[in-house]
Write a structure and sequence with these properties.
The protein has one domain. The protein has 2 helices and 6 strands. Strands 1, 2, 3, 4, 5 and 6 form a 6-stranded mixed sheet that branches.
Length: 98
Amino acid sequence: MAKLLITTQVYENYGSLHQPRWKPKGGSDYVIKNFRLFDSVRDVVEQVRGDIEADHPYYSEHVISWSVVEDDYLTQDERNQLEFDGRIAYPAKELDIA
């Protein structure tokens, strides 16, 4: 089995509407488990993009990468949680495709 991993970048505007000062502020990892649509990865990303991305005057989140990974793959954040806390309290967010 495999899963589709989608990574985003978050930006926050520390300025104003007229003089924005965008600053990168982390991001999120999203997964689609039991992924089998290997010939349609880009189409699937486009299908879920609207559920992930945000574009507001003071906050934005955009997809920056995606890849098909093994079913047991852990994101860097999940590995850090295991290393430092001994458990994964905040796993990657799961998405469903219709």
